[in-house]
């Protein structure tokens, strides 16, 4: 955030324009138009669906490479990954369609 001239230090918190510096001089009024606040994927439904789809696809891929890695943890907190892999294996046509729809909505709807 830029500081107003005269509010901080010798140059008001900004670098003088005459000095050669990689930093830009202070703008008179900062514009924050078009900037969105950063939020968690939990509060954005589309981001939450994207994270769940990526988790399902990643777990199914890992289980196809090393089945014993996920099969030994079928219960508990790590059992979530085994369940996601199972969903990815059994419902793979539906998961693939969801991934394609999600890709188009991210690329063209935003």
TrEMBL record:
Checking InterPro entries in the record gives: KISH_domain, Ksh1
Keyword set, alphabetical order: Golgi apparatus, Membrane, Signal, Transmembrane, Transmembrane helix
- This protein's source sits in the domain of life called Eukaryota
> Membrane topology type, per the record?
Single-pass type I membrane protein
Q: Where are the transmembrane segments?
A: 41-62, 92-109
One GO cellular component assignment for this chain's record is: Golgi membrane
Q: What is its main location?
A: Golgi
Its localization reads:
Golgi apparatus membrane
Q: Does the keyword Protein biosynthesis apply?
A: no
Does the UniProt entry include the keyword Phosphoprotein? Answer: no
Stated family? Belongs to the KISH family.
Q: What does this protein do?
A: Involved in the early part of the secretory pathway.
Q: What is this protein called?
A: Protein kish-A
């Amino acid at each position: 955030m830029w500081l107003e001239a005269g509010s901080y230090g010798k140059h008001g918190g900004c670098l003088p324009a005459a000095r050669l510096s990689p930093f830009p001089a202070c703008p008179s009024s900062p514009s924050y138009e078009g900037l969105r606040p950063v939020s968690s994927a939990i509060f954005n439904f589309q981001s939450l669906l994207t994270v769940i789809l990526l988790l399902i696809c990643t777990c199914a891929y890992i289980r196809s490479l090393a089945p014993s890695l996920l099969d030994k943890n079928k219960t508990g907190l790590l059992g979530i990954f085994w369940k996601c892999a199972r969903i990815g294996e059994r419902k793979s046509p539906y998961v693939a369609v969801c991934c394609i729809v999600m890709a188009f909505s991210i690329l063209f709807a935003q």
